[in-house]
Each structure stands twice: as C-alpha cells, then as structure tokens.
Amino acid sequence: MKTRKFISSFIASLFITTSAFAVATPGQNNSVAHMSEFGITSAPIGHVQFCQHNQAECAGYSEKTYRVKLTQDRWDELVMLNAEVNRVIIPQTDMQIYAVPEFWTYPTSVGDCEDYVLLKKKLLIDRGWHPSALRITVVLDENGEGHAVLTVSTDRGDVILDNVRNEVLMWNKTKYTYIKRQSGNVPSQWVSLSAPQYAAN
C-alpha cells in the first residue's frame, strides 16, 4: 500500500516542474536500428521472484509488440520522467537495503538499478505508454559489471532510460554490452541480445 500511494502521488506531481529540466531532442535524421534478438533465454532470478508476487504485471499481451511513435512530447516525457526518478530515489544495493543479494521491487526512497527500472516502467504504463514497448534490459557496463536499464521501443529506434545518467540515449550510443531483455509479448519471458557463438568446423 505504501508503494502504491507513493506511485500515485509521484504521478500527480511529476510534470508540475517541467521547466526545471534541460530537455534533449532526438536527431532529425536518426536511422538507429532496433536491437536484434536471438531467441528465448533465462530470466534473471530477481525478475522470476518479482513475477511470483506480481503476476498481473507479468502476464502476456495478445497483440504484437508495440513501438511508440516518438513525438517531441513523448521524448520530453521520457527525459523528464527519467531525471525525476533518478532524483528522488537514492541508489543502494539490495544487500544494503534487504540484506539479500537480489530483490526486485518498486522503490519508494532507495533502490538499486532494477528497482529504478521497475518504477520507470510502472509510471510510464500508468501514463498510457503501451507495456510491450517498455522492457527491462540487462547489460554489462563499461567495467563489465551487471546493470539494468529500461528499453523503450519506438518507431525511431530503441532508447535507454538509465539511473546513472539523466540523458536519454539511443541504445547504440551507450557503452554497454547488451545481454538480454524482456520479450515484447510475454513480460515474464526473456530474449537474448547476444548473438550465438558457433564453434569453427
């Protein structure tokens, strides 16, 4: 109940101070491709446990995967929401918060990278964004460490909402190695973003 009240009040207040943010704009001739997917893979254990407690949010969709039309207003909304969630949630590890290695949940004041992603996805869905366009994604960062970001699939490419930066980037403008993400149609199912390696004959 505490989390639900936080999300409701957050939505109500999120766009009151839009002038406080420096809004970036997408390039006029952007031809960025979407990420390639390479079949079904295992889901992170934290997400498996999250789905066990949030079954409605992990149910499948009947329609095909949706791509948001990336208008200027939609872009502004992404930039502002990403920056505001990054501002209000203090980064802490699951071990620091819950004394366990992995626990995915909606944060109200503190959280790790997966918690930021869950909250951003929830807020966007509550504001009318199609769920199948919003996918939790696992990457390796510049130091080879595991990290989670939110991929938003748009008609102009896949863009990334990240808790380590307020700037919203096209996926191939980050320095990340993309490992896997949620399926567009079945949120509890994950797909690989790493091309399979074949042994030489």
Structure write-up:
Helix content is 29%, strand content 21%. The protein has 201 residues and is of the alpha+beta class. The protein has one domain: Roll (C8orf32 fold), CATH 3.10.620.30. The strands form 2 sheets. It has a 7-stranded antiparallel sheet with strand order 1-9-8-4-5-6-7, with helices on one face. Helix 3 packs across helix 5. The N and C termini lie far apart (58 Å).
CATH architecture tag = Roll
Report mean pLDDT, rounded to a whole number: 86
Q: Strand-and-helix sequence, N→C?
A: HEHHEHEHEEEEEE
How would you write the strand order of the largest sheet?
1-9-8-4-5-6-7
- Which fold name is given in CATH as the topology? C8orf32 fold
- State the helix count: 5
What structural class do the secondary elements suggest?
Answer: alpha+beta
Largest sheet properties: 7 strands, antiparallel
Main features:
201 residues; alpha+beta; C8orf32 fold; seven-stranded antiparallel beta sheet; two-stranded parallel ribbon; 5 helices; 9 strands; globular
List the helices and strands and how they pair.
Blueprint: H1 2-14, E1 40-41, H2 45-53, H3 72-88, E2 90-91, H4 94-98, E3 110-111, H5 113-126, E4 134-140, E5 146-154, E6 157-162, E7 165-170, E8 177-182, E9 190-192
Parallel strand pairs: 2-3
Antiparallel strand pairs: 1-9, 4-5, 4-8, 5-6, 6-7, 8-9
Provide a concise account of the structure shown:
The chain is an alpha+beta fold and 201 residues long. The chain has helices at residues 2-14, 45-53, 72-88, 94-98, 113-126, and strands spanning 40-41, 90-91, 110-111, 134-140, 146-154, 157-162, 165-170, 177-182, 190-192.
